[in-house]
Amino acid sequence: MQLTAEKKRELYKKYGGSEENTGSIEAQVAVLTHRIKHITSHLQQYKKDKHSLRSLTNLVSRRKRFLKYLSNKDITTYRSLIKDLGLRK
Question: What are the structural domains of the chain?
């Protein structure tokens, strides 16, 4: 499912605290995770789409940097976010 404005607002509200708090690390990681899942499902169907593959690797590396920052800043929030999003760490 593609990321719509309504879905973004829902993710920002759930992980950022409010719809206007788009800069929180937790909300950004949640939005990136949703986009990564969407591109991954797209690539399963279109295996030769190199442009989407490049954007997927960029999104994964950005999410990795955000998660590293969050783990250094607040480990309990990091662990709860990983568990909630279903990421393996």
Answer: 5-85 (1.10.287.10)
